Fold this protein.
Amino acid sequence: MKNEKMKNRDLNVLWHPCTQMKDHETLPLIPIKKAHGIYLEDFEGNRYIDAISSWWVNMFGHTNSYINEKIKEQLESLEHVILAGFTHEQVVKLSERLVKLTPPHLDKCFYSDNGSSAVEVALKMSFHAHLNDGITKPLFVSLKNSYHGETIGALSVGDVELYKDTYAPLLLETIQTQVPKDMSEESALNSAVAFETLCEQRADEISAIILEPLIQGAGYMHMYNPLFLVRVREICTKYNVHLIADEVMVGFGRTGELFASQKAGISPDFLVLSKGLTGGYLPLSVVLTSNEIYAKFYCDYNKHKAFLHSHSYTGNALACAAANATLDIFENENIIEKNRELSSYMAQKLQKFEKLSNVKEIRQTGMVAVVELQGYEPQERIGLKVYRYGLKHGVLLRPLGHIVYFMPPYIITKEEIDIMMDCAYDALKSL
Ligand SMILES: *Cc1c(COP(=O)(O)O)cnc(C)c1O
């Protein structure tokens, strides 16, 4: 009853993201009263394991006592200050740490407040850097099946029909090159050849290629081999095309290293981070780039050469405090090492899905485990059935179409992995 009441108040005044609101005539909308660790709790005391880290942002659980404490501490001294002409300790400290932790030659941090706006920053900076060199390069390349956010520029370099089709007439002209079709080295090399061919023909028009290293998240958790990134890095350098690594989803340990680019041993020209950056607490994003690119904008005042981009909440102090607390936990608790054990445990558990007749493929990269289903039509909305089953049994699964995936916070235990994955298994068996 309490859930119902809150639901009705909500539907009176809210319009929810990524939702056909009419679905809520039959689909429960779940009001969350509180959350702790990996558990969400609704107004009637039902608990749900957050198997998708609340849209891929949560790293160390909800109401984490350490992060809470650090935000409260910050709250006593400074909540926010304009970042143009002013600075503060949390943003300086965070930037120093990010420069140290990310691949070589990423020396400067530019902040905004969500993944999409950071993608816009990277695209504009790339174009502008070439322009400051006297070259106009109006085109961006991205991978087929890619996702980079939903503002107009970010949507333009994306390639997931579901989000893009409707707005096609509004979007920038971009080029999609092929993504390796599987995790083999062979397909990585084949796709690299396709990109190189494109560069041979049109590199003088192309500012950058933007890609999601190793896992295309919203693109149905498609995964590919790090060798592709190695080759793309070489090709970009050869043809003076920037490489933008959108690690909004894969960053902060999801792939098994702190950053996915590190698994390929590459340094992108721009590294885009958000989601896990604040441990899932507050909106914050950052674009890192090299001193070399920074230098192209550095000169006596000339309005055309400076990067005159800004957002009101750029470098928010509370968000930066949450990000510093998150990095503390990574450092102090040896998280990347511990995750290796969790991900190999998930790999074991994943095996048994293979025997189900409606399973087409299982795959995994680090802390992202995927079960791909087969034999269903899109209008069956099979993912929705799995979602409903999960909720009924205390697990928040949120399949992408026919892709069921697990991306839990890193504090999950093996026993909780059992509950989470057994629930999904039972759901698939019941279909
Ligand atoms: C989520 C996501 C974005 C967009 O981030 P928002 O904060 O939702 O705007 C961009 N790129 C990738 C790879 C993402 O997963």
DSSP finds 15 helices and 16 strands in the chain. The chain has a mean pLDDT of 97. The pocket of pyridoxal-5'-phosphate is lined by residues 114-116, 119, 147-149, 212, 217-218, 246, 248-249, 274 (CB under 6 Å).
